[in-house]
């Protein structure tokens, strides 16, 4: 982040990158030398205080980019001069390929000030201009929001390229047997129970069944119910039969 002035934005930026698995946040010419240590920064970091504590402070962008081998200047404005442009997803793909090809590579996303963004001179220090394809009529993203989107795209590209899991890993010790598909015998037993229940509640006329049960069979075959689902539906059947018996008993009184 170049020339940040609001402690809250710095704290939010730290939180944004930590949620995406990154930990290096560099501050260039901050308004206050201890900006990352301000109470508002720590509060909005919300558990990412370790990122703030490690955040180096540089006097110039040139100094901050000295170890960087691929830098993206994140900006919303079109530049007539400067490095070639790309969108944030393309930038993530380029970053992933760069790191895969260069074991000692270092990628940076460079953000400007909260008010005016990056200057042309700062952009010239980067290898690519990077845009977030936001609403052209209202593309107002604060620096933390922009960094969150950039960090997300970078994380997604790296996970995809490495073949890592995208979904949370289940903490269950044993697989749930009820989640397994119901076998044919269980489905057929349910359908017989279901037919009996439909007759009991007078939804199905056994003398004139037409194609109702055939359609019902097709319906449940398409759904591929699990064991738990079949057990649940059998419970519905039992309740329907009980209700039908109560209704019959009440009518005979």
Strand content: 5-15%
**Which consecutive residue ranges, at least 5 long each, have pLDDT under 50?**
none
Query: What does the overall shape look like?
Result: elongated
Alpha plus pi helix count: 10
Main beta sheet: 4 strands, parallel
SS class: alpha/beta
Radius of gyration computed on alpha carbons: 31 Å
C-alpha end-to-end distance? 83 Å
Helix content: 40-55%
Biggest sheet strand line-up: 4-6-3-5
- Provide the succession of SSEs: HEHHEHEEHEHEHHHH
How many runs of DSSP E, i.e. beta strands? Answer: 6
Q: What is the residue-mean pLDDT, rounded to a whole number?
A: 92
Structure commentary:
The chain is α/β, with parallel strands linked by helices. The protein contains ten helices and six strands; from the N terminus they run H-E-H-H-E-H-E-E-H-E-H-E-H-H-H-H. It is elongated and about 90 Å long.
List the helices and strands and how they pair.
Elements: H1 7-19, E1 27-28, H2 39-45, H3 49-54, E2 57-58, H4 61-64, E3 70-74, E4 85-87, H5 88-101, E5 107-110, H6 120-123, E6 128-131, H7 143-162, H8 184-200, H9 212-223, H10 227-252
Parallel strand pairs: 1-2, 3-5, 3-6, 4-6
């Amino acid at each position: 982040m170049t020339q940040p002035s609001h402690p809250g934005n710095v704290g939010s930026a730290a939180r944004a990158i930590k949620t995406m698995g990154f930990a290096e946040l560099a501050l260039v010419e901050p308004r206050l030398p201890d900006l990352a240590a301000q109470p508002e920064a720590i509060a909005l970091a919300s558990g990412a205080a370790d990122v703030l504590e490690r955040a180096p402070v540089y006097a110039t962008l040139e100094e901050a980019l000295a170890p960087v081998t691929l830098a993206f200047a994140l900006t919303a404005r079109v530049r007539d001069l400067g490095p070639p442009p790309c969108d944030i997803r393309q930038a993530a793909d380029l970053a992933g390929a760069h790191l895969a090809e260069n074991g000692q590579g270092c990628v940076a996303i460079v953000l400007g000030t909260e008010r005016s963004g990056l200057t042309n001179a700062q952009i010239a220090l980067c290898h690519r201009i990077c845009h977030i394809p936001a609403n052209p009529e209202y593309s107002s993203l604060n620096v933390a929001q922009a960094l969150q989107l950039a960090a997300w795209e970078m994380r997604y590209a790296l996970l995809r390229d490495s073949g890592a899991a995208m979904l949370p890993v289940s903490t269950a010790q044993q697989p749930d047997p009820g989640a397994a598909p119901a076998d044919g015998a269980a489905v057929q037993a349910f359908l017989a129970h279901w037919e009996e229940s439909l007759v009991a509640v007078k939804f199905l006329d056994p003398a004139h069944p037409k194609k109702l049960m055939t359609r019902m069979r097709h319906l449940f075959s398409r759904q591929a119910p699990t064991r738990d689902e079949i057990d649940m539906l059998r419970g519905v059947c039992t309740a329907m039969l009980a209700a039908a018996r109560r209704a019959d008993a009440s009518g005979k009184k």
